[in-house]
User: What shape does this take?
Amino acid sequence: MVCIRIVCGAMARIMGFGGYAPARVVTNDDWAAMVETSDEWITQRTGIKRRRFAAADESTMTLAVNAARVAMTDAGVDADDIDEIILATDTPEMMTPDTAALVQHELGCRNIPTYDLGGSGCAGFVQAIDVAASRIAVMPKRILVIGVEVISRMISWEDRATAVLFGDAAGAVVMSPDQGRAELLGVVSGTDGGSAEILTLAAGGTRNPFNEKSLLSGDYNRLVMDGKRVFTEAVRRMSEASVEVLARVGRSMGEVALVIPHQANLRIIDAVRKKLGLDEDRVYVNIQEYGNTGSATVPFALWEAVGKNRIADGDLVVLTAFGAGFHWAAAALQF
Ligand code: UT7
Assistant: This one.
């Protein structure tokens, strides 16, 4: 079943951008020393050259806090100014409580409500800004929205087709009803739960709880994916959602200065770019440096694009993402 949610009209603004990637760099040659792969295969099939892995003393919470602090400094706000936290991740600190609660405490925020948006895969952050905008429409608030993953701890090191794709990172924004450089014009998002089995991390849930049986069978911490089917759907859904969100807010692809797509595979990004009829300089790519960092790719790339002056005031920017679920989403931002 496919359901589409669309929100548009003046929704909310983004007043600060943040990102964080761990220091440890893992190159394709590092992977080739561990499993049967090569820099040539990974580069040709995915565009990835290196990715970052969290250090032993880092976790989903610490990555999220680091990105949040950068976004809060950029926004000129401190912990007391945050009214709510929404955190998108598929690799939470623990099953319960939510990672957002741990982030709230670590940042020293008041006893504000916090939520994890879990399981939306790589589309989680764009869905989270949609939820944040809806919350802001109901009650003016400053909401910290984070996309974060420590996927390095959830991959099967033997599954070379999946393992080499991923990296760890976090990205964050501070959203407000009326302050900030970027106005969120609209979001389109959708879900096809019929494709749930194509990309899963089932171990640890109620279907396959951690117990002696699962541990002995080695069936834990395993991201399982049918890469080809994900590839095809990612191209289709990200390009369709981008076109649709622009139509909903009365704008056209010709007006777009930059598309920031989910960074899953350079070939996916290229196929989306061609479908949208865009030149390379209008699509942001950093997958060569960080790999696929799940729900962190879009907010991290957004932060990087702002920092590198790839976005100027007056620019129309489209964010688009696709992930497990399947979930997909696209957002239009007016700087
Ligand atoms: O963020 C959302 C989640 N994920 C994605 O969006 C990923 C979407 N899918 C993809 O990016 C691609 O499907 C992959 C990168 C995962 C795989 O690329 P592919 O072009 O679909 O390759 P393939 O799975 O068809 O494998 C081709 C060959 C196979 O060998 P044979 O059967 O042709 O002899 C694989 O065994 O490449 C082999 N292979 C590798 N060789 C070296 C698979 N992984 C590797 C590897 N190194 N890491």
